[in-house]
Amino acid sequence: MRRLEPLIFEISKPGRKAYSLPALEVEKKPMSEYLPAGELRTTPAELPEVSEVDVVRHFTRLSQLNHGVDIGFYPLGSCTMKYNPKINEEAANLPGFTDIHPYAPEETVQGALQLMYELQEYLAEIAGMDKVSLQPAAGAHGELTGIHIIRAYHKSRNEAARTKILIPDSAHGTNPASGVLAGFQTVQIPSDSRGGVDIEALEKVMDETVAGLMLTNPNTLGLFDENIEKIQEIVHKKGGLLYYDGANANAIMGIARPGDMGFDVLHFNLHKTFSTPHGGGGPGSGPVAVKKELAQFLPVPVVEFDGQKYYLNYDVPNTVGRMKSFYGNFLVMVKAYAYIRSLGPDGLREASQDAVLNANYILRRILEYYDLPYDRHCKHEFVVSPQRIKKETGCHTMDISKRLLDYGVHPPTNYFPLIVDEAIMVEPTETESKETLDYFADALIAIAKEAYSNPEMLHKAPHTTVVGRLDEAGAAKNPRIRWQKGM
Ligand SMILES: *Cc1c(COP(=O)(O)O)cnc(C)c1O
What we know:
Blueprint: H1 52-65, H2 86-92, H3 95-98, H4 110-127, E1 131-133, H5 139-156, E2 164-168, H6 174-181, E3 185-189, H7 199-205, E4 210-215, H8 228-237, E5 241-246, H9 258-261, E6 265-268, H10 270-273, E7 288-290, E8 302-305, E9 310-313, H11 330-366, E10 382-384, H12 387-393, H13 397-406, E11 413-414, E12 424-426, H14 434-453, H15 455-460, H16 472-477
Parallel strand pairs: 2-3, 2-4, 4-5, 5-6
Antiparallel strand pairs: 1-7, 6-7, 8-9, 10-12, 11-12
Helix pairs in contact: 2-11, 4-11, 5-6, 11-14
The structure holds pyridoxal-5'-phosphate.
């Protein structure tokens, strides 16, 4: 258990300083000589006044109040919060990578371009696709890029009347959002009794007004859609394209390839599958991969190799344009590259196998207490529901997750996917030891028992964290993320 310190925040003392500078050697002129009078502040800035050690302790303490993957287990389903090896950070901190300028002449940044080119090649191989753009900054951004590519493809064939994108009801919220942002109408496809796409429903809506289908496979239930060949046939036969949401690629690396399943375009989340920091920890990267027929629509520039040198190709005939300033989040690419190179094909495959094994291990351990809506083996994550606990004790998923904080574990994803009532979505990832998996399963079992013996205590959890139950909607809508005097 971590030592909990009171949340001391106001440590400013008038006149205290964190710097000591030598005396000025030049003449000090009033600011009005540099700036017009209207631009000058009339009252002091009211910044906190603190010593250096105050600053260090303040931020170190704050960093420890938050849960992170470097502090403890983080089984947040769909987010793949795997451990990011620190060697990747070291690679991304090499001055040859950090000190280059986006406008540097190509011949002076051949190493960086080579890294990007090779990363494109590796991702294409892992995806079973032909060509990659590293530009998008996140998964959702990759989706938007991919949907624009689908739109450009239909337009080039004079089929602009395709106005719909099909999306299963188990999909991540970014899928419909991307479809709508790209100007499409989204149509929801129900799931069948095994948690996959309902084939009959798909056949009914698939016609010449549909541009494509967006699918996550394995989906957000952690279930592989066994009908994928049938699904791609139905969509392709009517002239539609298939978009693969690669957020769950941690289940399939080196085992199955979306390109082989019949998908035409996809994104990867480097910050999920390829071990780069996530959320508050750093920017993301959502490369898009396409089959060769779609390469003419990729965003520019694409990194190419002419046999002698690497270069930025702006000459892509039917490009959807630029999706991001410059070339994407380059240092994230360096980390993903280091990760892929250090694991190699066998290592990546083993990572996925272990991710799947770990998820199934926890699932089987907790099934006596938690209900499984679709009784199948899972892939890298699973969704359970505390139906019995809720009925017999009045405790909800929220209570169970809040109580997990007292056990020092980040809660799983809650209430998603929407098609499972009281969903608890667990993704352990491959980087956890058996001891950690057992600790987590034991904690979930202990909490299930607590629900029966002391439901009130669960309703009031967490009990050991610095803050208790927060107004989560308020925190998201009106975040106060900086210090302001007097607040
Ligand atoms: C995380 C996720 C996304 C969105 O990716 P971001 O990188 O967060 O934009 C899309 N689909 C699924 C299934 C996801 O888990």
